[in-house]
UniProtKB/TrEMBL annotation:
Alphabetized InterPro entries for the sequence: Thymidate_synth/dCMP_Mease (IPR045097), Thymidate_synth/dCMP_Mease_dom (IPR023451), Thymidate_synth/dCMP_Mease_sf (IPR036926), Thymidylate_synthase (IPR000398), Thymidylate_synthase_AS (IPR020940)
Gene Ontology cellular-component terms listed: cytosol
Recorded GO MF terms: thymidylate synthase activity
Source domain of life: Bacteria
GO biological process: dTMP biosynthetic process; dTTP biosynthetic process; methylation
Keywords carried by this UniProt record: Cytoplasm, Methyltransferase, Nucleotide biosynthesis, Transferase
Organism annotation: Bhargavaea cecembensis DSE10
Chain residues that bind dUMP: 21, 176-177, 216-219, 227, 257-259
Protein name listed in UniProt: Thymidylate synthase
Organism lineage string: Bacteria, Bacillati, Bacillota, Bacilli, Bacillales
Length: 314
């Protein structure tokens, strides 16, 4: 994962300090590419422990076309909870303590973090127990799963981009149209978070499948390690589905940034030596990509440095 560490160094040493939507502040560069040969091992970060189970359950959530955090909460995956919770606390139905700017406040104030954790636990419990509440506040709008599996075609129907791209890889492998887009301008304003990983394309050569992702906005410390592993996993799954060998994952970044409240964590990570990459194992004979469960997928030989905590910018 030296490519990732070099990206961090480049941003820290040569990036431009900028404001951002969250008010946190970032240091960023524009336009960067990393390439990962998937035959060299599974690119899961070793300089800090990265929660592979969360990566798997989120990706399968996308693949199944789901957009409601209830499914993720059932899997004990909190990745999207903050955006759903933000929707709730800004509603007229919320009557608890002031949760304005809760992400940054919790990072600085342990007492407030206890209050936030209590309110978040109540929120998760109600999402699981109350169908009306889950529909109102658990759904994130037409985010990734909706666009991948049910893109509105403008004629009252939908387009299953993921199913279509699998079929096109199988039937016309040399096509240059193996593309799935999550960026739907007509629905961006209805999404809890506009897609950061906006478009991916597959490429077949010499019986090997490669994938390139264009990511418009890249939270390099928290998000990018997940994105690398997620799209590497997607490439594994599509290769499995289409009977191809593994090629490369190519990660192209637009605005690649490190939040100002992540600088210390990045420096700590840069002080660590990378370790050997793990391997991926899929135990799901007879299951299609659309039938896979989190328990079907695991990594072997993963020996990372300890995790490094950092606040998410909402």
């Amino acid at each position: 994962m030296e490519q990732y560490l070099q990206l961090c160094r480049t941003i820290m040493e040569n990036g431009t300090d900028k404001g951002d939507r969250t008010g946190t502040g970032t240091r960023s560069i524009f336009g960067h590419q990393m390439r990962f040969d998937l035959s060299d091992g599974f690119p899961l970060m070793t300089t800090k422990k990265t929660a592979f189970r969360l990566i798997v359950s989120e990706l399968l959530w996308f693949i199944k076309g789901d957009t409601n955090v209830r499914t993720l909460i059932e899997e004990k995956n909190p990745i999207w909870d903050d955006w759903a919770f933000e929707k709730f606390v800004k509603s007229g139905e919320y009557s608890g303590p002031d949760m304005a700017d809760f992400g940054r406040r919790a990072a600085k104030d342990p007492a407030f973090k206890e209050v936030l954790d209590h309110e978040m636990d109540k929120f998760r419990g109600k999402i699981l127990s109350d169908d009306r509440f889950a529909e109102a506040y658990g759904d994130l709008g037409p985010v990734y799963g909706r666009q991948w599996r049910s893109w509105p075609d403008g004629r009252g129907g939908t387009i299953d981009q993921l199913k279509n791209v699998i079929e096109s890889i199988q039937t016309t492998p040399d096509s240059r149209r193996h593309i799935v887009s999550a960026w739907n301008p007509a629905e961006v304003e209805d999404m809890a978070l506009p897609p950061c990983h906006t478009l991916f394309q597959f490429y077949v050569a010499d019986g090997r499948l490669s994938c390139q992702l264009y990511q418009r906005s890249a939270d390099v410390f928290l998000g990018v390690p997940f994105n690398i592993a997620s799209y590497a996993l997607l490439t594994h799954l599509i290769a499995r589905e289409t009977g191809l060998q593994l090629g490369e994952f190519v990660h192209t970044l637009g605005d690649a940034h490190i939040y100002s409240n992540h600088f210390d964590q990045v420096n700590e990570q840069l002080s660590r030596e990378p370790r050997q990459l793990p391997s991926l194992a899929i135990d799901a004979d007879g299951k299609s990509i659309f039938e896979l469960e989190t328990s079907d997928i695991r990594v072997e030989g993963y020996d990372p440095h300890p995790k490094i905590k950092a606040p998410i910018a909402v």
